[in-house]
Design goal:
427 residues, alpha+beta, v583 fold, Enterococcus faecalis V583 fold, 2 domains, four-stranded antiparallel sheet, 14 helices, 38% helix, 20% strand, disordered N terminus
């Protein structure tokens, strides 16, 4: 039997699905992410190898990477010293001497191109409710030309080196001295202060800085090098917290893997297209075309420059943040376009395709109603409403050229529910 959505989802008993979704949602809602450490990716990511470069999206072969995502992979290899020249890096990828991996396969998430190399520091976030760990690398800084936006030059190299040698050691030491920072209550408070912790992180970054301040003062007393420089960096970079919200979301979403669930456990894209995972289908990705977008470009840029080079920050929407909390961050209209009315309507629309309301993340404008959480692939197809996400927009020549809103393509959900029916229809 094929339902109106064009899938065989209707062949599976709805009572079985509802019970599985309730369990997956409960696990997601109970997640308790704490940032407990900062360490090089090669030391803490499971199965990491010295010649491995991670990138965003569903796994692909080297030849399939194009544009900015391909350039970012080459830049990562050069930064790590896996090759001395661009030509050597390409030859290394061609031969397999330099390996490519997908961030999600290593319990990690990456912003835009999502490049990880062995020496790059990552936040280690422990989900204390369920015992799993998520990772995210560091924000490079507010300069539009960044490795995760497909750029690699001497300026990018120096900023990455500064993160490795100054910023990350200081932040990591502060976190360890603090004995970890609980991220869920911090995020909940940031929502009340005007963030949605995807495209707006100003309040969350300030709150995190406050959490580590006592440790920072102790480190000043102990003459730990780089403290002042690092705190000035944190003070001027409102997007610093995004990588913490991403790691918290990854640690939360990975705990919702439940047999039979149709809830979405991951959303990501690459230069090839958009992809999702379902909690009831484990690590299998379901791919569609690039996302549907609308946004606001920085001065001097045009629509024809927009390109896709990866992105896993939609893990925040997966757990009820970002575009699913847009009504908390109406000031984003100045950054990514739209209007308050449009943002509110988008946010309300997301309740139509989610399993429930978040028990911790709440929207003041909606009388503190919980954010819509747990995208149900069945509802996406039945309602014809596509998940909305807040993102930065990359340019074909590299760098950030704007910001906006994207929607996941319908094809991902159709594929996912057909695969779901094939696996579970005997139920």
């Amino acid at each position: 039997m094929v339902n109106a959505a064009g899938t065989r989802a209707g062949t599976v008993d709805s009572t079985f699905i509802d019970a599985a979704n309730e369990k997956a949602f409960a696990r997601l809602d109970a997640a308790d992410p704490w940032v407990v450490d900062v360490a090089p990716a090669g030391d803490v990511l499971p199965g990491y190898r010295a010649n491995l470069v991670l990138t965003s999206g569903a796994p692909m072969e080297w030849a399939e990477y194009v544009g900015g995502q391909r350039e970012a992979l080459i830049g990562g290899a050069l930064f790590e010293g896996l090759a001395a020249t661009r030509e050597e890096a390409i030859a290394g990828f061609d031969s397999g001497e330099i390996e490519i991996g997908a961030c999600h396969d290593y319990a990690a998430v990456g912003s835009l191109a999502g490049i990880y190399t062995a020496s790059m520091p990552v936040f280690v976030v422990e989900n204390r409710a369920h015992g799993n760990i998520g990772f995210c690398n560091f924000y490079e800084g507010k300069e539009p030309r960044r490795l995760n936006y497909g750029c690699y030059d001497e300026g990018v190299h120096q900023r990455l080196l500064h993160v490795n040698t100054v910023l990350a050691p200081v932040v990591g030491e502060a976190i360890r001295r603090t004995e970890g920072v609980a991220l869920k209550p911090l995020i909940a408070r940031a929502l009340r202060m005007g963030d949605e912790v995807h495209s707006r992180n100003a309040a969350a970054s300030i709150l995190f800085n406050r959490e580590i301040l006592p440790a920072i003062l102790d480190m000043v007393r102990d003459d730990v090098p780089g403290v002042q420089e690092s705190m000035l960096h944190l003070a001027e970079n409102d997007y610093f917290f995004l990588r913490l919200s991403m790691a918290a979301a990854k640690a939360s979403a990975d705990a919702m893997i439940v047999e039979g669930s149709t809830l979405v456990s991951a959303m990501a894209f690459s230069c090839r297209g958009f992809a999702i995972k379902l909690a009831g289908l484990g690590d299998q990705w379901f791919e569609g075309p690039p996302p549907i977008h609308q946004g606001k470009l920085f001065k001097g840029h045009t629509e024809d420059e927009i390109t896709w080079m990866g992105g896993e920050s939609p893990i925040t929407e997966t757990v009820g943040l970002g575009g699913f909390a847009q009504a908390c961050a109406l000031s984003l209209q100045d950054y990514q376009g739209g209007s308050p009315d449009v943002m509110i309507e988008r946010n309300r629309e997301m309740y139509e395709i989610t399993h429930g309301e978040n028990g911790t993340y709440r929207i003041p404008l909606f009388s503190f109603q919980g954010t819509p959480t747990g995208v149900d692939a069945r509802k996406v197809l039945d309602k014809g409403i596509l998940p909305v996400m807040d993102v930065g927009l990359a340019g074909r020549d590299g760098g950030q050229i704007g910001a906006g809103v994207i929607r996941a393509p319908r094809e991902c959900f159709e594929q996912a529910m057909n695969a779901y029916a094939e696996r579970y229809e005997s139920r």
